[in-house]
Write a structure and sequence with these properties.
InterPro entries: LolA/LolB/LppX (IPR029046), OM_lipoprot_carrier_LolA-like (IPR004564). By secondary structure, the chain is mostly beta strands. The protein contains three helices and eleven strands. The chain has a single domain, classed as Lipoprotein localisation LolA/LolB/LppX (outer membrane lipoprotein receptor (LolB), chain A). The two termini are about 20 Å apart.
Length: about 230
């Protein structure tokens, strides 16, 4: 693949109606006090918001499965707000870097750099904080067979549905500072094809070098290289 499918991500806060206060007539027996269970979707959203606020940086191994069956691996570096680097460590001649405002897709094999405004990519949901989540539109759901505690955040830009959908996967983990672990995500494009990214070997709130958000521009080089720096 020589391009990255980008998906707009918008997220709206879920709301739970507050319990009404019921007046009691003098001639009626007293009502038993009842507790209202917090809506599970709202609870899950709050957990994700806490994750976004509590995890300022992340480093992890990633494994990417493309729709055509190709598998690529590498190291992910992330720092909020707005910075990420997908450093492919196999023979994939690509590099993806977000420098706070722009997402850069660098192809070292053909000497090409493609740029997108970061705010118009799905990574906005991942690289922002709880304020960003509150200003977007998405669906929060919980559980899958055998994974009842799984939290899923799915989003599709209603104004540009052809850009597809992104789903982030979280799992409770008491070893993490916020009690949640980001397992990975998938993107479903307009053709109905899915690209999956899984994370392992995670370290959170680590110190990352500012040089990670820069890259060697391959345009104009006389010799194409498969290595990235």
């Amino acid at each position: 693949m020589r391009s990255v499918t980008l998906f707009g991500v918008y997220l709206a806060l879920l709301a739970v109606p507050a319990p009404a206060l019921l007046a009691q007539e003098a001639d009626l027996p007293p009502l038993e006090e009842q507790s209202v269970e917090e809506d599970q979707s709202l609870k899950a959203l709050r957990q994700v918001q806490a994750y976004m606020d509590g995890v300022e940086s992340l480093e992890a191994e990633f494994r990417q499965h493309a729709p055509n069956g190709n598998v690529a691996t590498g190291r992910l570096y992330l720092e909020r707000p707005g910075y990420v680097r997908f450093d492919y460590t196999d023979e994939t001649p690509f590099l993806i870097v977000a420098d706070g405002t722009t997402l850069n897709f660098i192809d070292y094999e053909i000497g090409q750099v493609t740029k997108w405004p970061l705010k118009k990519t799905p990574l906005r949901a991942l690289l922002g904080g709880s304020i960003d989540l509150a200003s977007l539109q998405a669906n929060i759901s919980r559980g899958r067979p055998g994974l009842e505690d799984l939290i899923l955040l799915s989003a599709r830009d209603p104004e540009n549905p052809e850009q597809g959908e992104i789903t982030l996967y979280f799992m409770p983990d008491e070893a993490m500072p916020t009690g949640l672990r980001l397992l990975g995500w998938n993107v479903l494009d307009a053709k109905g094809e899915t690209t999956e990214v899984a994370l392992t070997d995670q370290q959170v709130n680590v110190s990352l070098d500012d040089a990670l958000w820069t890259f060697e521009d391959p345009r104009g080089l006389t010799k194409r290289r498969r290595t990235r720096r």
